[in-house]
Amino acid sequence: MGEPSRCAASAEEKRHEPEDADLRARLGLIAHTIMVLSGKGGVGKSTVATHLALALARQGHRTGLLDIDIHGPSVPKILGLEGRQMQVSDAGMLPVSLDERLKVLSIGFLLGPDQDAAVIWRGPMKHKVIREFLTQVVWGPLDYLVVDSPPGTGDEPLSIAQLIPEADGAVIVTTPQEVALADVRKCIRFCQAVRLPILGVVENMSGFACPRCGERLAPFGEGGGERMAQEMSVPFLGRLPMDPSLMAACDAGTPIDAGPDAGATGQALGRVIEGILREIGSRAAAAAGGSCPASERS
Ligand SMILES: Nc1ncnc2c1ncn2[C@@H]1O[C@H](COP(=O)(O)OP(=O)(O)O)[C@@H](O)[C@H]1O
Ligand SMILES: [Mg+2]
After folding, report:
1. pLDDT, tens digit, for every residue of 30-70?
2. What is the pLDDT of residues 240-259, one digit of tens each?
3. What residues line ligand 1, using a CB cutoff of 6 Å?
4. Which residue has the CA at smallest separation from atom 16 of ligand 1?
5. Sequence spans of domains, the chain
């Protein structure tokens, strides 16, 4: 719940947008921003983003979860918030509050009763809406804003990286097999191109224990994400097992607990979340000490 960690020099260099006082004023109330990205869809971004935001809120941090997956918003379902609508106040639009610590915003809250409606927008429209999510929505002061993105390196990740140049960095989620890793390398290059620091890589769906015989199986392989992180010289944040009960919990809108007292998957999630916070802390310390990890990386 500390003060915003900023590296003024790199933020200045990274600014692609024209100066916008309203945007800057709103972003000035957000201490830390974490973007969750991936090369491919279906690798667990929304699962990680949602559990990260929940864990932060449960630790007492004022947390926002912004779902910018405009074509496939999953956050309302995972949090059991489907069908909820945004309210409008005199000050602007209000995100949906899961509880007093977690505010959530998703295009899913704007779809009205037809949750299966397709949103058909070109890039400039998406950029405009994402900008409005930051400027017209009353987030209030936040310790953390977690951003759940669509897969790849298209309009939405580019917009958010440009709109929040002082973001702490990206968490990149992948599965272990080579066909996914090839796209992660592109995702890493994307982050480097837009000067978005990389907090680390999460290897999801990394093996599982057969519920019948206990044998360890690895349908998508194991260890590929970790090896790729080493090759690309980016931090590795840990592995999450494939766990049908995690999938069922997300489908039911009842996310699992993450942390040392949780089950095996919750413990693994807890370690990943600790790793993300450790990275943010060490970057903030480096920035306060005068060296800037973001500029070192480019
Ligand atoms: N570790 C895991 N074990 C089992 N199912 C998972 C795991 N991680 C994600 N899933 C499931 O995989 C599907 C895709 O995950 P999701 O987080 O929506 O991916 P993305 O946001 O990258 O498209 C969802 O049904 C989710 O519940
Ligand atoms: Mg998703």
Report:
1. 999 999 999 999 999 999 999 999 999 999 999 999 999 99
2. 999 999 999 999 999 999 99
3. 38, 41-47, 74, 204-205, 240, 242-243, 246-247, 250
4. 44
5. 8-287
Candidate from 36, 47, 50 with most ligand 1 atoms within 8 A of CB, to mutate: 47
pTM: 0.90
272 Cα to the center of ligand 1, angstroms = 16
Which of 3.40.50.300, 3.40.50.1100, 1.20.120.450, 3.40.50.920 would CATH assign to domain 8-287?
3.40.50.300
- Name 239's bridge partners: 203
> Which residue, by CA, sits nearest to atom 23 of ligand 1?
42
- What is the C-alpha to C-alpha distance for residues 117 and 77, in angstroms, rounded to an integer? 15
Question: What is the four-CA torsion angle of 97, 31, 256, 200, rounded to 10 degrees?
Answer: 150
Q: Which helix (H) or strand (E) holds 11?
A: helix 8-14
